[in-house]
Amino acid sequence: MVSFNTAQSWKDIYGARPGHKTFVKGEFYSGGSFAGIGTTSIISERRLEVHKQMRDYLSGAFSDRAILEQEKIVTASVDDFIRLVGVLGSQIEWFNMSTTLQSLTCDITGDLSFGATFGALKSEEPHPWISVSLEAMTQGEIVDVLNRFAILAKVLPVLMGSKLKKLTENTKKNEELSYNAVQSRVARKTKRRNFLTRILEDRDLSVVTDRAIAAHASDLVTAGSDTTATTLAAALYYLLQDDSSSTTTTTMSRLTSEIRNVFNSYADITYSSTASLPYLRAVILEALRLYPPVPIGPPRVVPDGGDTVDGIFPRAKHEPHRRLPIPRRTSTTHGPSNQNDGSNQTQTPSTTTTTTTATSTAAKPFSLGPRRCMGRNLACFASTCAPPSPSSSGRTTSELAADAHTVEEAGLDGSRYE
Ligand code: HEM
Asked: Which residues form the signal peptide (predicted)?
């Protein structure tokens, strides 16, 4: 558990509900764009009750229904990406796939959050929003360090004066660009449904200002673009480690044949149709486990004297860097079965079941509890963390999960602690 500072009161730390520990976010989240000028977002807000209200208010933008409405926006950028990769692949010897994936996810999250892509897939020059936002994030981290280390607070401004000045300017610019983008979207009537559609429909004007919406929108791009691009790049990297000349079945060849067996055309590949592909799901989960895009334990406040979580440490894997063999399914409608998985290990079905369970319970790439990732369904992992099966209330589990403030409410995890 990470302890950066001490909390004011027991209630601040644990929240109102007995039996549920909810650790408050650390001061790490207080600097950077918007939070630094007192306008907090769903990510930077540290007060439990205010965050709960924000999460309730924003949850409509992340429901399964909203994601389906937004699908056209996502596929428009995916089409641009596929075209670009085709052109680059045929014209030049090599290109940087990580950068191209970053362009893809910035365009998608930019379009969803502000109503227009950044044009990153169509331009060599990064959009001003993208370049200044990277600096703005760094500024948040530096503010946190300065707050925590008194000596550095004295020395850094002397050593890095001009750099810090530039970071501050870029943070201001990021706030301005985000605010202007939100204002022009508010002024524009459009039928295109993105995050802002729900956020604007659901807002109470006396409580939620345009600046507050700009803070959310800006942080949604930051939270959603780098994480998703990192996951895709990691999955691709590990898939390409397979020996393409191998005569045995590799992870790549099994994945390719699952996709080609199921889809007849490119147009058939959608959010809903990919959610039910078991091997694709396993590959993405494994990439998230091996290369979690948020590898830090997100900073939380620990009470004076420290604390434990249920008195136990989480179970850990013995060999965290070893790629797990992806389980072979004995009966499935998709993909090949009973084939060698290329891991050179002989596994019985019961062993592979255990492996899957260990992976999905030990790895929490989207975090847990009330500060759990709101965009996990959008990141196309609905099937991995909240299968969209109907619940007794008639709502899908991913809809419930999007609204829930505890994993228990979401019915996703037996853990008592959030
Ligand atoms: C593979 C992709 C993703 C991963 C691994 C991921 C992971 C995470 C993690 C670990 C957190 C907790 C961070 C903390 O406590 O500081 C988080 C929070 C969050 N994520 Fe994601 N994320 C992903 C994609 C997205 C996307 C696409 C969006 C939306 C565009 C998004 C929106 C959010 C939001 C709004 C929060 C804050 C939730 C809250 O505090 O209530 N994420 N994410």
From this structure: none
